[in-house]
Amino acid sequence: MAGKLSHLDDKGAAHMVDVSAKDVTQRTATAKGRIEMAPETLALILDNKITKGNVIEIARLAGIMAAKKTADLIPLCHPLMLSKVSVELEADKEASAIEVSATVKVSGQTGVEMEALIAVNVACLTIYDMAKAVDRGMRITDIRLTHKSGGKSGTFEAG
């Protein structure tokens, strides 16, 4: 397996992939997801009436912080010096949900897909945690990579 980008070494043992021979490029990834809830819960969140605080802003901050800690959460994931993390949350009143989108950028030798996915997951989980006292039936769903650019594998756009 030598020379391959694999988490297994020649003996089949897990190890961090050596990316030192890869070119440094601008890399960007965007992930999206949603958390569905009762209409009353969404109204409380939007009216800033959840007793734990401003759910939207705390979820945004949690997502940003989580992206920066991805290497601590995902085994064998490279620690990266991220150049930008943005987390956007938008209410979908018709579906009684909050759409979460995270975009992460780095100039490096490996991509930031995991960082974007972690940011979305943690933002959704933060919303759940902050509002669970009024709605334990919330559902986190549709978390997926929607865009990736940079690196040898080129650009990915979800259909």
From TrEMBL:
Catalytic residue positions: D129
CDD domains: MoaC_PE (cd01420)
Broad EC category: lyase
Pfam assignment, any one: MoaC
Molybdopterin cofactor biosynthesis C (MoaC) domain: residues covered: 16-151
BP-aspect Gene Ontology terms: Mo-molybdopterin cofactor biosynthetic process
Coiled coil feature spans: none
Keywords attached to this entry: Lyase, Molybdenum cofactor biosynthesis
Pathway assigned to this chain's UniProt record: Cofactor biosynthesis; molybdopterin biosynthesis
The organism's place on the tree of life at top rank: Bacteria
Reactions catalysed, as given in the entry: (8S)-3',8-cyclo-7,8-dihydroguanosine 5'-triphosphate = cyclic pyranopterin phosphate + diphosphate
Entry's EC annotation: 4.6.1.17
GO molecular function term, any single one: cyclic pyranopterin monophosphate synthase activity
Chain positions recorded as substrate binding sites: L76, C77, H78, M114, E115
Stated family: Belongs to the MoaC family.
Functional description taken from the UniProt entry: Catalyzes the conversion of (8S)-3',8-cyclo-7,8-dihydroguanosine 5'-triphosphate to cyclic pyranopterin monophosphate (cPMP).
Subunit structure: Homohexamer; trimer of dimers.
Name listed for the protein in its UniProt record: Cyclic pyranopterin monophosphate synthase
Organism of provenance: Tepidicaulis marinus
